[in-house]
Amino acid sequence: RWLQQHECVEKLNMHAILSASVGQEQLLTELLVSYSKIPVLIGELISVEIWKYKIFPVLCRLEDFKPRSTFPIYVLHHEASIINLLETVFFYKEICESAEDSILDLIDYCHRKLTLLAARSANGQTVTTAELHPTDLPSPSSMQKQAETMEFEISLKALSVLRFITDQVESLPLSALTRMLNTHNLPCLRVELVEHCPWSCREAGKLKKFENGAWHVVHPEDQVKMTKLDGQVWLALLNLLLSPECQRKYHFDGFNKSQLLKLRAFLTDVLIDQLPNLVEMQRFLSYLAVTEPAPPKKDLVLEQV
Q1: How far apart are CA 238 and CA 250, in angstroms?
Q2: What would the pLDDT profile of 217-242 be if each residue is shown by its tens digit?
Q3: What InterPro entries does the record tag this protein with (predicted)?
Q4: 3-state DSSP call for residue 216?
Q5: How many whole angstroms separate alpha carbon 38 and alpha carbon 158?
Q6: CA nearest 209: which of 193, 228, 189?
Q7: For the chain, which terminal residue's Cβ has fewer other Cβ atoms within 10 angstroms, N or C?
Q8: DSSP per-residue string spanning 242-259
Q9: Alpha carbon distances (Å) from 301 to 224, 237, 297, 298
Q10: Which residues of the chain, if any, have pLDDT below 50?
Q11: How deeply is 13 buried, as exposed, middle or buried, from its count of CB atoms within 10 A (0-12, 13-18, 19+)?
């Protein structure tokens, strides 16, 4: 039954990618909304994550663990397929709204992935791509390497999903906004990602950037060019900092203010030319530097846990 479910998710994922490439994903999004499948996918995503953290490491430590099937690899691919599918469809407001209460679980999931990404880059760790085909019989060490590589790629997908969620700030439940701004402090986490940029690294004196599932050497003339991942981080920051609703709820205390003001060093003319909306961000940070914002409005938030 699980393998059938996995196969269905794979097919849906491929269908979503092909439909998106020709701009015809409306039918798929309508079906996902009308059959209430987004909460199911989010639940599946979290189950696989728990399996990966609680059971997979124990399996790999067993002395007699000699996989006779590729089932563990399929489970690892399952998480990647679901997050890829969600990244493709979460662009639509209806999808975001149809997640209902499970949107909180998805925000928590994405936050865990981004925290891991920020921690690895702050420690100077870079992930190299390790190819392992699902038809190869794996060894525990090769599977762990594969899991690490996929964790990096999944985290980058979570970055995009979270940005699409921030696009829908106006239609999100009140508790989702509180979760993003106050519980997880996503603006400061985004600053950390801008600062350390996990999808770029230097190797043998050459700058490499991660795009479309692989590391590429960047030519000197393209080094100041913004990648899609950079764009996702900046767009999410614009949504979280400049939306009136977010400004009312976010607590601009001393720490948060000092973290956000670090962004001024990255807002160069070259960057603003590529994403003109960042002029508003520059203006907001200049205003923030010289003023003390009002304390956040305290609301009573009741949520089901």
Answers
A1: 13
A2: 988 888 888 999 999 999 999 999 99
A3: ZMYND10 (IPR052298)
A4: strand
A5: 15
A6: 228
A7: C
A8: HSHHHHHHS---HHHHHH
A9: 43, 24, 12, 9
A10: 130-135
A11: buried
